[in-house]
Specification:
By secondary structure, the chain is an alpha+beta fold. The protein folds into two domains: 5-45, Winged helix-like DNA-binding domain superfamily/Winged helix DNA-binding domain (Arc Repressor Mutant, subunit A), CATH 1.10.10.10; 65-139, Lrp/AsnC effector binding domain/regulation of amino acid metabolism (RAM) domain (Alpha-Beta Plaits, 2-Layer Sandwich). Helices cover 37% and strands 19% of the residues. The chain contains five helices and four strands, in the order H-H-H-E-H-E-E-H-E. It has helices at 5-16, 22-29, 33-45, 78-89, 115-128, and strands spanning 65-73, 94-99, 106-112, 132-139. Strands 2-3-1-4 form a four-stranded antiparallel beta sheet, covered by helices on one side. A hairpin with a 6-residue loop joins strand 2 and strand 3. It is elongated. Residues 3-64 form the HTH asnC-type domain. This is Lrp/AsnC family transcriptional regulator. InterPro entries: AsnC-type_HTH_dom (IPR000485), Dimeric_a/b-barrel (IPR011008), Tscrpt_reg_AsnC-like (IPR019888), Tscrpt_reg_AsnC/Lrp_C (IPR019887), WH-like_DNA-bd_sf (IPR036388), WH_DNA-bd_sf (IPR036390). Pfam families: AsnC_trans_reg, HTH_24. It comes from Pendulispora rubella.
Length: 158
């Protein structure tokens, strides 16, 4: 899907705050509210916008602990990797999972209420995915920045 200048502006604005009204977005982008609504609908239908969500303040939402985990698997057999990917995607405490290059095969961001919850999750991961060779854990001491915004350049060379 080709994104024009208006689409790119709109994507940056809704990533910043998805609760903005079509009227407010129209003022910022320079289109009519109905054109904004059509574009947003198209961007959702085309899968550019996957979902709208609320970003919570961890301190006010129960103070979860964040764990950054590197996971190594024994063999990179496609069916075993697919099984682990599905397992990770189904876990509510796994916020993000990346298949990566380097020493680790996966890097995970996990939010858990406490270390016991984290420990139980990792024990299940190893038990239900026996091809996981090892994992290393870093505990986040504080959150410096957290987000999912993807910078969209408003102008392109196309």
């Amino acid at each position: 899907m080709k994104l024009d200048r208006f689409d790119r502006q709109l994507l940056n604005l809704v990533q910043e705050d998805a609760t903005q009204t079509a009227e407010r977005l129209a003022e910022k982008v320079g289109l009519s509210p109905s054109a904004i609504q059509r574009r947003l609908r198209r961007l959702r239908e085309e899968g550019v916008i996957v979902r709208d969500c609320a970003v919570l303040d961890p301190k006010k939402a129960g103070r979860p602990t964040f764990f950054v985990v590197s996971v190594q698997v024994e063999r990179e057999r496609p069916e075993l990797l697919a099984q682990l990917r599905e397992w990770l995607a189904a876990q509510e405490h796994v916020q993000q999972a990346f298949y990566v290059t380097g020493e680790a095969d996966f890097v995970l961001i996990i939010a858990a209420h406490d270390t016991e919850t984290y420990d139980a999750l990792m024990a299940r991961m190893v038990q239900e995915n026996p091809h996981v060779r090892r994992f290393t854990t870093n505990v986040a001491l504080s959150v410096v920045k957290r987000g999912l915004t993807i910078p969209i350049p408003e102008e392109t060379d196309d």
